[in-house]
Amino acid sequence: MSSLSSLLVVALAIVSFYSVSTVVVTYTATFEACVQGLTCPEGNPSRFNHTFALNGTLSPNVTLQVGDVLRFDLETNVPIHPLTICRNSPIPKFCQDANGTDVLNIPITKAGDSTVAVFTRPGTFYYGCNYHPGMGAFVNVTRPTSLRKLFQHV
Ligand SMILES: *[C@@H]1O[C@H](CO)[C@@H](O)[C@H](O)[C@H]1NC(C)=O
Ligand SMILES: *[C@@H]1O[C@H](CO)[C@@H](O)[C@H](O)[C@H]1NC(C)=O
Ligand SMILES: *[C@@H]1O[C@H](CO)[C@@H](O)[C@H](O)[C@H]1NC(C)=O
Ligand SMILES: *[C@@H]1O[C@H](CO)[C@@H](O)[C@H](O)[C@H]1NC(C)=O
Ligand SMILES: *[C@@H]1O[C@H](CO)[C@@H](O)[C@H](O)[C@H]1NC(C)=O
């Protein structure tokens, strides 16, 4: 009986630790030149030929797990390209015209600005410019498949 209750205590401790653990996935975001049909994302307007880069990679897809926080630290001034994280955005919009509850962060435009979004359910989300298509990519959020968070947290 006592070993059963101590097992329960351990199990509860693990569950509560697990549920409060949060992984913050941080990227430095810049706005970089890209080449149409090669490194520009689908839909990128040829009058810009630019897209966001995360940690130096042009428009990478981001994969997260439920509960993760996605953080962007902007290092380029982008007055007409607010960096936005959103849902329900048809391809290749990547957050163009996203508004209301589809916008998951506070869009940012100034070097030095940071923004975050918390993902509480699995699914396909996006990041990109709030005003123009083809300047972003997918944020795919999956259910945790392991005790990864337990170990990343410590
Ligand atoms: C991106 O770069 C920053 C700064 O070097 C680093 O702290 C962060 O962990 C990197 N993000 C990813 C997802 O690797
Ligand atoms: C963007 O690239 C396209 C195709 O390479 C080119 O026709 C266009 O002039 C470029 N636009 C700018 C603003 O450089
Ligand atoms: C992101 O994923 C989409 C859909 O699978 C794919 O078309 C695109 O090439 C990927 N982008 C990068 C940069 O890997
Ligand atoms: C939000 O975006 C949708 C789709 O682009 C548009 O129909 C709607 O008018 C927009 N709402 C606001 C308040 O801007
Ligand atoms: C992200 O999800 C979309 C839509 O389900 C899928 O087309 C794409 O391949 C996924 N990309 C990655 C990198 O998992």
Q: Give the rounded overall mean pLDDT.
A: 89
Which geometry do the CA atoms define? elongated
CA radius of gyration: 19 Å
Q: Would you list the SSEs in sequence order as H and E?
A: HEEEEEEEEEH
- For the record, give the distance between the C-alpha atoms at the N and C termini, rounded to a whole number: 31 Å
Going by CATH, the homologous superfamily would be Cupredoxins -  blue copper proteins
Overall tally of domains: 1
Give the topology, please.
Blueprint: H1 2-20, E1 24-33, E2 50-54, E3 57-58, E4 62-65, E5 69-74, E6 83-87, E7 114-118, E8 123-129, E9 137-142, H2 148-153
This protein binds 2-acetamido-2-deoxy-beta-D-glucopyranose (5 copies).
Short description:
It contains 2 helices and 9 strands, in the order αβββββββββα. One 2-acetamido-2-deoxy-beta-D-glucopyranose (NAG) binds next to β9.
Jot down its keywords.
154 residues; alpha+beta; Immunoglobulin-like; four-stranded mixed β-sheet; 2 helices; 9 strands; binds 2-acetamido-2-deoxy-beta-D-glucopyranose
Structure overview:
The protein is an alpha+beta fold and 154 residues long. It has a single domain (22-152), classed as Cupredoxins -  blue copper proteins (Immunoglobulin-like, Sandwich), CATH 2.60.40.420. It has helices spanning 2-20, 148-153; strands at 24-33, 50-54, 57-58, 62-65, 69-74, 83-87, 114-118, 123-129, 137-142. A hairpin with a 7-residue loop joins strand 8 (123-129) and strand 9. The longest helix has 19 residues, at 2-20. The model has no long low-confidence stretch (mean pLDDT 89). Bound molecules: 2-acetamido-2-deoxy-beta-D-glucopyranose (5 copies). InterPro entries: Cupredoxin. Residues 1-22 form the signal peptide. Keywords: Signal.
